[in-house]
Amino acid sequence: MHGSFPRLDIGPLSEYREDHIMIARFSDYVHEHQSLVFPHRHSFYHLVLFTEGAGRHTIDFHHFQASPYQVYFMIPGQVHTWDFNDQMEGYVVNFSDSFFKSFLLQPEYLDSFSFLDQDSSNNVLMLAEGIRGQICGLFEELLSQNARATAWRDDMVRVLLIQIFLIIEQSDSVDRKKNAEKGKNATVRNFIRLIDKNYDRLRLPGQYAEMLNVTPNHLNALCKEHVGMQAGELIRNRIVLEAKRLLINLDLTVSEIAYKLNFNDNSYFTKFFRKETGMTPEDFRKSPAL
């Protein structure tokens, strides 16, 4: 499915054609890849800290005004585009899903950070004043370490990135309430992770409850308590998100999108989409979604 939408891999974006990590000054990155204004998805984690300039960027149909000391995080699969008014400066880091997994005992450790989230409204933060100098210093050290051809280079980069994540997570940059909600229940986190992997073929809360070894009623109660919506709504929201991502790809017909999302026919997909969003797929495609 993901191959039908423009998807970027780290290798072609990296000076050294590396597939696991890329670190650069943002102005150099934009100059080298000026074509990255079209909507696209990444196969990797994407982290940007702005220090100068202004403009707009969009992650999964949430629009943000870029400004100095804003930092945004993207996880693999999210759709992104940008439009900058001025010369932008800052730092950009791309790293693969596997970059930390061989380093950390907990494979899902990154999921514990509130800003590495499927909900793109949580992906963009304004750095608290008290940590701006410290965070910029760590990004400078990332650039320095990345330029060294040493056996310990990647481990130093990993340590610096984790330090950046921890400082931001513990700072006033993060909404404490959202952070507490995200880390509160492992079953809900695992449910959301399973939805992301299976939304195109598993549509019923009971199917996920069985995978999680809980009853459907218990799963539903946990979702209402910790994220404020029913389990079925979380599943439907993920299907709608992917439908919107595919609809901005004008090379695909609505019928093709319905097929990719495993709807029996185009009319059923249209009915589902209109019920969830208030508009038809065709109307959404015509709207200024990005």
TrEMBL record:
Coiled-coil annotated spans: none
Residue ranges annotated for the HTH araC/xylS-type domain, each copy included: 189-287
Protein name: AraC-type DNA-binding protein
SMART domains linked: HTH_ARAC (SM00342)
InterPro entries: AraC-bd (IPR003313), Homeodomain-like_sf (IPR009057), HTH-like (IPR037923), HTH_AraC (IPR018060), Tscrpt_reg_AraC-type_HTH (IPR020449)
Keyword tags: DNA-binding, Transcription, Transcription regulation
Keyword hit for DNA-binding: yes
Superkingdom of source: Bacteria
Example of a GO MF term: sequence-specific DNA binding
Organism this protein belongs to: Dyadobacter soli
